[in-house]
Write a structure and sequence with these properties.
Layout: E1 4-5, E2 8-11, E3 15-16, E4 22-33, H1 36-48, E5 53-70, E6 73-88, H2 96-117, E7 122-123, E8 126-127, E9 130-132, E10 148-150, H3 153-167, E11 182-183
Parallel strand pairs: 1-11
Antiparallel strand pairs: 2-4, 3-4, 4-5, 5-6, 7-8, 9-10
Length: 184
């Protein structure tokens, strides 16, 4: 099966960069099977922490498109950053305390996101949930900015239902997927 449309997409407003250019961010949402590259990266990450990889979920892609000037000439560049979740054989933890920490830090986190990316996504005037990449029930840090990103409600529900499957050995999330599973 070839690339498909992303399950959702968010496009931020243009953000002025220090060099006088602008960058526009977009997030393409899965979830997708991890490519061989991301599966290998997760395997290494789990091993470096003394754990074994049991699955990998490619949650989203953060894309940045820059336009500005370089050597006095108009220039454009772009980058992509895959947001993946490595389902290592982490022990299950009680997320009660960490959920409370997230609840207390949520507004500050969103303010910092807005400063960098130009806006926290909303639907119908309601903020999207912040999704913890390494979930709180398996030791994820509740306020680490590298562990949280905005996800539309419907996609958040799909991703959250995929996590228990990913931690189950031999699930579909242990299968390698295509290099690029979506179309932009």
């Amino acid at each position: 099966m070839g690339p498909q449309a992303a399950s959702a997409k968010w496009e931020g407003p243009p953000v002025t960069t220090p060099d006088g250019g602008t960058v526009r961010y977009a997030i393409y949402y899965g979830p997708w099977l991890c490519s061989a590259r991301w599966m290998t990266q997760c395997e290494r990450r789990c091993a470096s922490e003394g754990h074994v990889l049991v699955g990998c979920i490619w949650l989203a892609d953060l894309k940045g498109d820059w336009a500005g000037r370089w050597a006095y000439l108009p220039a454009e560049a772009g980058t992509r950053y895959a947001i993946t979740h490595c389902c290592c054989d982490y022990p299950v933890t009680d997320p009660t305390l960490t959920r409370r920490q997230w609840d207390n830090a949520r507004d500050n986190y969103r303010r910092d996101w807005i400063a960098e990316f130009g806006g926290w996504p909303q639907s119908g005037g309601r903020n999207w949930p912040g999704h913890h990449v390494r979930d709180l029930g398996h030791g994820g840090h509740p306020t680490d900015p590298r562990n949280v990103f905005p996800v539309p409600d419907a996609v958040h529900t799909i991703i959250n239902s995929a996590y228990p499957q990913c931690y189950a050995r031999g699930s579909r999330w242990s299968t390698v997927g295509p290099d690029r599973p979506y179309l932009d």
